[in-house]
Amino acid sequence: xxxxxxxxxxxxxxxxxxxxxxxxxxxxxxxxxxxxxxxxxxxxxxxxxxxxxxxxxxxxxxxxxxxxxxxxxxxxxxxxxxxxxxxxxxxxxxxxxxxxxxxxxxxxxxxxxxxxxxxxxxxxxxxxxxxxxxxxxxxxxxxxxxxxxxxxxxxxxxxxxxxxxxxxxxxxxxxxxxxxxxxxxxxxxxxxxxxxxxxxxxxxxxxxxxxxxxxxxxxxxxxxxxxxxxxxxxxxxxxxxxxxxxxxxxxxxxxxxxxxxxxxxxxxxxxxxxxxxxxxxxxxxxxxxxxxxxxxxxxxxxxxxxxxxxxxxxxxxxxxxxxxxxxxxxxxxxxxxxxxxxxxxxxxxxxxxxxxxxxxxxxxxxxxxxxxxxxxxxxxxxxxxxxxxxxxxxxxxxxxxxxxxxxxxxxxxxxxxxxxxxxxxxxxxxxxxxxxxxxxxxxxxxxxxxxxxxxxxxxxxxxxxxxxxxxxxxxxxxxxxxxxxxxxxxxxxx
Length: 494
What we know:
CATH superfamily of the largest domain: Glycosyl hydrolase domain, family 43
Oligomer: single chain
CATH class of the largest domain: Mainly Beta
């Protein structure tokens, strides 16, 4: 048995024991993916491979706290129902065995039928923390062997720093390319590499970098092409409440530079980090993200009560990315979410007078999909407040300020754990119609508006009895329509 095989065996035994505690968890998501037990953060290695959706993820099978990272693994036929597979990667070698590091984030590619993982290894040889890029391969798509020539990129170029992690790999024509997140002089950047065979890599250029306005370190970069444009997504450190940024422009492979024309935020909520994308057999560009946040974010208090239940962390529901004519991106829940509907459509008309609090059809449901179509052309309200996961005292509040063209999410009085108010522009404020899509799970809320250009996703660890939903108009009346579906639990096996 190799050192890696032994490390995987020990991790699986720990996971088996830890899973016994999770069965009684009251905050476990119904339709957002989580591991069997333990800690989860970044999605890794998203790939559609041999007819299956594969997700890997940063994982600690020894407890519900961040520690030395492993790679968890699951597959799906439909993005809704999942099968847990054996742990794919475990810290085991001199180059990836740091007790506060391990096998960091990365990506996956299909190398002529061989599923290949590219990840950041972390260690300390006695001169400080070292991050390098490594690969592991699998012939069956389940069991992985680390490459004997690891690391394939032992360290950063001169224009990088010791922060040198989270490789995303893709193929352009007959060449492999890799973008790695890094930093220099407190300015985040993405570094571009090129290879013929995934084993020997050559540094090309700084793909793109902050000019002082985009953070001190670019974590988890993701690069892809969509409708003739190139997109770079990343999670910037040191940028306040901005967590997931995208740049849209044109890639010059001769110089290794991305020339971008537009920028945007992937998600404005509290808990959405490190999104990664894949292309599926339908040609869709799909992303997942970690549905949580780090302690360096301004609103962060703690990771909530789930640690006591033996788990911590889940993934956002998968979203399809589309490019709009103005260069902005849409983020749309995949159509497969309809498979989770367990009730007939419930629809009611809204006619809410000033300062009146009206119950919504989602009330009493633990997990649901709700669409609000607000007729602003025939309404006089200056502000609309939607309360979710409410009881007699607490709720998370979504406020649409039509006068100032702003939408905010407020969880200051939501669950006794979470804090903060996040605000962002509301592009539909001056239009005749405002559509808001709300998706609620046991401890996660996703809100979509502005034709899926504006998304706010947040954890809320409410009491299980907090299932009421309300709407209130301020400064005038509100007319519209609300439709709702109750959502059931995804099927998880393995």
